[in-house]
Every structure is written in structure tokens, then in C-alpha cells.
UniProtKB/TrEMBL annotation:
Residues 113-117 are annotated as: G2. Residues 203-206 are annotated as: G4. HAMAP family: GTPase_Era (MF_00367). Residues 79-309 form the Era-type G domain. The keyword Chaperone does not apply. This is GTPase Era, mitochondrial. Belongs to the TRAFAC class TrmE-Era-EngA-EngB-Septin-like GTPase superfamily. Era GTPase family. Pfam families: KH_2 (PF07650), MMR_HSR1 (PF01926).
Length: 415
């Protein structure tokens, strides 16, 4: 007997292991999709309350609100860890979270201030839920006002640390100046949250040629203490001591005083010397987030650090960002990658039209508005080549995030 009423299907993407409710007329790619019959309407607003989607990034605001309304179904032995990843601008925080998630949910660019506000990403492994808090780069109020960054750039990292169980401090090993010390505003936040577990993430280690440089960097950032245990600096192979050093050393010993032995690589810190590091890190991870090196070890560490606690979010939720926020985030990322100097920071991005048709194809129109005509000219590029590249790359990323075909149109005009 044929079932009464229309029959819809769950379209399962075998590669990505997700499901979506769509009509059976969806154009399928051989070997990638399988259809599972189900009864009822395809609209999420009309879905029976007992139906729950698998882990997806919702394509519409209605789906997003529905997913947020779901209460988490607690596993038998739930474990939870809220992790704030903090650091100065452009050290690779968002890239790391994408790799930890195995799903792109954060925007990434080589330019600073890509992340403008806190964003959450939810990772599930068995009975363990990890909530990653991606934060803007640490800046002070003066810097924020100078570059018109907005209040969220200053206060969001502080809020993230207050709501976190663990704090990951990320440093760029390839930056000669920033790898030697932890920024003062970040040190202040660590002192304020010193009761919370913290760990150091040294990123871009593949760009350092010298192992000694890396060890010196870690020694400075940790003040020579990791997990409460003092660490030793590597001694030079062939220490050289001149006659004056030898005479001074002998004289000091005769006077019963200890002096610094620079030839052996040891140092005695003055009580008045400012602190450049944080001695309370429990672990140090040396990684290359871009190459996914060392990321698995960090993920395993976080899974083990999770504590018995009920989950905060339903397992279906991947990120707390709604579809429109994700789309504008991706377009801004591509603009940052393709436009130089101050131009990307003087363009406003907004969603003008958003619709998912009966075949599951996402249709979007996103408007890019410039404060000056020259910014619009740069955004469009010679014969429209720049905006075409931005649109093509944005479309590809959105298709990967939402796991569907995307039709994207970018409109550029004067603000």
C-alpha cells in the first residue's frame, strides 16, 4: 500500500556524514549521495518535534532557530570542556579551531582583525562535548579607537575567558618580536583568571629553522616553568670564556657571591625585571595549524581535560553563528585576501536576499558597500576580475560549509 500524502527524503552526503531534508527531485551526484525515505513535510517549521537533524550548519534562519531551540540529549556519561583560544591578532586562532573541528566554521585571512567578535564552535567525540570560543585578537582600547574596530574587539576576549574552563594562549613563532613575550593585556587577563587551566600553543613552528630559537621562545613565554616544573635551557656545545670572564668569576667565588654564568646559558632574573611570560601553563603545544601538524595531540589533550558535566548544546549544533553571519564572514574573508591596505576595512557587507529552493539549492545576494568611490573601484577590479574572484571563492566555501549547491551574487555600490 502506498503511503498517503507526499513522501520526502533525507539526503545523506556519504562523504560528509550529514543529512538534510529535501525533495526527492534533488540532482544527485553518483557515489556521493544516498536517499532514505521519510514521511512528512520538508519545511523545518512543520517538522515533528521528535525529528532531529544530524550535525549540519543550517541553511536558513528558520532551521537555525529550530536547531537552537533543541534541548541537548545527554549521553550516558556526558563530559564538557569550554575552551577559549586567545592571542594577538593574526596568530592563527581561527585556523586552529577549523582544524580542531574538522569543519570550517571560522573565517581565516592573512590580514589582522578578520575575527570581529566571539564565535562558538561545538565539537563532539563520543560522550564528550568541547565548546571552542574563537575570539578577536587581543588589542587595547587605544588601538581599537585608532582603527575604528568597535567595542567587541576589546571586551569579547575578556568575556570568553570568564566563560571558559580552559584557556589556550596562542603565539606566532615566526614573529621575532611577539614570540619573546606575552602581550601585557593578555597577561592581565591570565592573572585575573589564574585559577583556570591554561596551556600554551606555539603556532607556525614550521617557519622556524632553528630548534634553539623555538626552545628559547618557549622558555621566555613560560618563564622557564611548565606544569609547575622548571625547565632547562639547552646548553651551547662549545662555550667560550675569555680571560676577563674567568678572572671575574674567580673573584666572585672568593667573595662568596654567585654571578650569572652566561657561558652556560643560565640567567638570573632581577626582581625588578618585568614579566614577559606566564609560569602557570600546564602544557605547551608546538604546532602548525595551517599544515595540521600537532593538532591531533592538542585535540586529544582537550578531550582528556573535559570534566563530567551535562552538555551545553544539542549535538546537532556546529556553530552559534546564523547562516547570514556565516555568509558575510566568508565574503569578508575573501575581501581581506584580495584587497590591499585599508580598503577591506572600509567596506560594509550585508545579506540582501536569501532563499533555499525546493531542490535544496541556496540562492543568496550579498551587497558590498563602500564609503568612497575608490573603494568600490578597488573591490570591482579591472573589468570586474577582482569581484569575480571574491564571488567564486565565497561560493565554493559556502557550498562546503552548508553542504549544498550555492548560487551567489555579489552587488557592489556606494554606501
Amino acid at each position: 500500500m502506498k503511503p498517503a500524502g507526499p513522501v520526502f527524503y533525507i539526503l545523506r552526503n556519504v562523504n560528509f556524514k550529514i543529512t538534510q531534508r529535501v525533495r526527492s527531485s534533488y540532482a544527485q551526484k553518483p557515489g556521493r549521495w544516498e536517499l532514505l525515505p521519510c514521511r512528512g513535510k520538508s519545511s523545518v517549521s512543520a517538522v515533528d518535534s521528535s525529528w532531529r537533524p544530524e550535525r549540519i550548519v543550517p541553511k536558513t534562519l528558520a532551521e537555525y532557530q529550530y536547531m537552537k531551540s533543541l534541548l541537548p540529549v545527554q549521553p550516558e556519561s556526558p563530559r564538557l570542556l569550554r575552551v577559549a583560544i586567545v592571542g594577538e591578532p593574526n596568530v592563527g586562532k581561527s585556523t586552529l579551531i577549523n582544524e580542531l573541528m574538522r569543519w570550517k566554521v571560522c573565517s581565516v585571512s592573512k590580514k589582522v582583525h578578520t575575527t570581529r567578535h566571539n564565535a562558538k564552535a561545538v565539537f563532539i567525540d563520543g560522550d564528550t562535548q568541547i565548546v571552542f570560543l574563537d575570539t578577536p585578537g587581543i588589542v587595547d582600547l587605544k588601538h581599537s579607537r585608532k582603527h575604528h574596530l568597535g567595542a567587541t574587539m576589546v571586551v569579547d576576549p575578556e568575556h570568553a575567558l570568564l566563560n571558559a574552563d580552559a584557556i589556550g594562549v596562542m603565539v606566532d613563532a615566526s614573529d621575532h618580536w611577539r614570540r619573546q613575550r606575552i602581550e601585557e593585556n593578555l597577561l592581565r587577563l591570565l592573572r585575573f583568571n589564574e585559577n583556570k587551566q591554561s596551556f600554551l600553543i606555539v603556532n607556525k613552528v614550521d617557519l622556524l629553522r632553528s630548534k634553539r630559537q623555538l626552545l628559547e621562545c618557549i622558555h621566555s613565554l613560560t618563564e622557564g616553568v611548565v606544569g609547575g616544573v622548571p625547565t632547562r635551557r639547552q646548553k651551547p656545545r662549545n662555550p667560550k670564556i675569555n680571560a676577563d670572564d674567568l678572572f671575574s668569576k674567580t673573584e666572585a667565588k672568593l667573595r662568596g657571591r654567585e654571578i650569572e654564568d652566561e657561558a652556560q646559558g643560565s640567567s638570573q632574573e632581577s626582581s625588578t625585571e618585568p614579566h614577559n611570560g606566564w609560569p602557570n601553563f600546564s602544557e605547551v603545544f608546538m604546532i602548525s595549524a595551517l599544515n595540521n601538524d600537532g593538532v591531533d595531540d592538542l585535540r586529544s589533550y582537550l578531550l582528556q581535560a573535559a570534566r563530567p558535566s551535562e552538555w551545553m548544546y544539542p549535538k546537532e549544533l556546529v556553530t552559534d553563528q546564523n547562516p547570514h553571519e556565516i555568509a558575510t564572514m566568508i565574503v569578508r574573508e575573501k575581501i581581506l585576501n584580495h584587497l590591499a591596505k585599508e580598503v577591506p576595512y572600509n567596506l560594509d557587507i550585508s545579506v540582501t536576499m536569501w532563499d533555499v529552493d525546493s531542490s535544496g539549492v541556496l540562492h543568496a545576494v550579498i551587497t558590498i558597500q563602500g564609503h568612497q568611490d575608490r573603494y568600490i573601484k578597488y573591490a570591482i577590479g579591472d573589468k570586474g576580475k577582482t569581484i569575480q574572484k571574491i564571488a567564486a571563492e565565497s561560493r565554493q566555501d559556502l557550498a562546503s560549509i552548508f553542504h549544498c549547491d550555492v548560487s551567489l551574487k555579489l552587488v557592489v555600490n556606494r554606501l
